[in-house]
Design goal:
The chain has 478 residues and is mainly α. 64% of the residues lie in helices and 4% in strands.
């Protein structure tokens, strides 16, 4: 495409070649031809003697060499994409020209192809999602015992571990995986049900033979690699299917967005940073900057996917009776672009997790600054064991904590709570004893054990079940 026309950033910058091929023109029209072959074979196998093996062989010989020029010229004349491609296929297959698309309506190729393409795209999304989880699992295992400040309301809270925090990201992605598997396993073809879903044309073709007509959809489904077709339909499959598919993508986008937000905040703290390449420029003005641009791009594309999921929801809601055509233009945009965008999101997630930089000394410094406040309960219990009055000690610690907090916030001093406590005789504790209690691992609860259990009982069995999907890497274009 020339530089004088709009080009889609999802194709130019974000989505992988593999996902783009799934939504390519070649994939679409070659699938149309596979469906026409499946229909003709089914009709022949069910006894329609006007269709011969010679005709089907001719169709198969030209299954993949789409004569786009002929189809484009024909569409200018008839203004109908399906009939233009029926005509173009017939030009290449003169013996079969009269039986291509026999008994079918346009949605036979259009809708069945949409289901086939979405199913294939969901499988690629699953593959990348599994690999994101695998990379996060490695990260969680590596850092399961590294104490770090936890945050509630982005305010310092009881410590956790870096690995335990990663389990929270993983768990959300695994919830998405459950939804994806459910939708993927429930995908069915439309089949060939005619203009209003009644299969009236096949009553004519097969002279009212109900038993034979009942075999059409199952045979087509099997030939196209599906278990079954939707049992009833209008002219189209229910547009609620598109809604279900896009809701899965929106769920993944939400999980990725939350992950990227956490990385952006951690990079601000200089605790954890996304990969930054040797020659990468963080800012055109401020040469020292290392902006979290990949995580920001995850958030940006994820928001697009979340909002895009509204398109099929509205489309499903406003369909009239057996079909209207106000779905078509919207589907051409919203479905491919939703998949291309989530593909870019997952590639970015793979890239970011694979190269995460953990600055352990910074994490330790931040934790030690706050740890005296978090250790006050333990200090109070030790002082009580030494003979102190709990209520009096509680009030003392409250006041001393306020004083230390004031020193930090208003005077810019270090946290001197331990010195203040050691100087107060009511506690009967030396500064050395108090400092001995400042071991971060003592304050992370069961973070390590929870991480190990989560990986062993939940994550690893899923990765083992899907081991054939593991091992991919992601290339980031810009």
């Amino acid at each position: 495409m020339g530089t004088d026309r709009y080009s889609n950033p999802l194709s130019e910058r974000y989505a992988s070649k593999e996902m783009q091929e799934i939504f390519s023109q070649d994939k679409k029209f070659r699938t149309w031809r596979r469906l026409w072959i499946a229909l003709a074979e089914t009709e022949m196998e069910l006894g329609l003697d006007r269709i011969s093996k010679e005709q089907i062989d001719e169709m198969k010989a030209h299954q993949d060499d789409i004569n786009y020029d002929v189809a484009r010229e024909r569409e200018k004349l008839v203004r109908h994409d399906v009939m233009s491609h029926v005509y173009a296929y017939g030009v290449q297959c003169p013996k079969a020209a009269g039986i291509i698309h026999l008994g079918a309506t346009s949605c036979y190729v259009g809708d069945n192809t949409d289901i086939i393409i979405m199913t294939e795209a969901l499988k690629l999304v699953k593959k990348k999602l599994i690999n994101v989880v695998a990379e996060l699992a490695d990260f969680a295992e590596k850092y399961k015992s590294l104490p770090t400040l936890a945050f509630t309301h982005f305010q310092p809270a009881q410590p956790t571990s870096v690995g335990k925090r990663a389990t929270l990201w993983m768990q959300e992605f695994l919830l998405d995986l459950e939804d994806l598997d459910h939708v993927l396993h429930s995908m069915k073809l439309l089949g060939s049900k005619g203009t209003t879903g009644t299969q009236a044309s096949f009553l004519e073709l097969f002279h009212g033979d109900q038993e034979t007509i009942d075999k059409i959809d199952p045979l087509i489904a099997k030939k196209m690699g599906f278990q079954e077709c939707y049992p009833v339909s209008g002219q189209t499959y229910s547009r609620k299917v598109d809604t279900r598919v896009m809701n899965v993508l929106a769920g993944i986008a939400g999980s990725a967005h939350k992950f990227s937000n956490d990385i952006r905040l951690l990079q601000h703290l200089k605790e954890v940073e996304e990969p930054f390449e040797k020659n990468q420029i963080g800012s055109s003005a401020m040469a020292y900057k290392r902006n979290p641009m990949r995580s920001e791009r995850i958030a940006s594309l994820a928001r697009y996917v979340i909002v895009d999921a509204l398109n099929p929801a509205f489309t499903s809601a406003v369909q009239w009776f057996e079909r209207t055509l106000d779905d078509s233009a919207n589907k051409r945009l919203s479905i491919p672009e939703g998949f291309l965008a989530i593909d870019g999101v997952l590639d970015l997630c793979l890239n970011v997790v694979d190269g995460l930089v953990v600055n352990e000394k910074v994490i330790e410094k931040h934790l030690l600054l706050e740890l005296p406040f978090m250790a006050t309960e333990n200090i109070m219990m030790d002082a009580t064991k030494a003979g102190g009055d709990r209520q009096e000690l509680h009030e003392k610690i409250r006041k001393l904590s306020m004083e230390a907090g004031k020193n930090v916030k208003e005077k810019g001093l270090d946290n001197n709570l331990l010195e203040l406590i050691a100087a107060d005789p009511v506690f009967h504790l030396t500064l050395e004893e108090l400092q001995e209690a400042m071991q971060p691992l003592k304050y992370i609860g069961r973070a390590k054990e929870q991480t190990e259990a989560f990986l062993t009982k939940v994550v690893n069995p899923i990765l083992e079940e899907n081991k054939d999907l593991l091992g991919i890497t992601a290339e980031i274009n810009v």
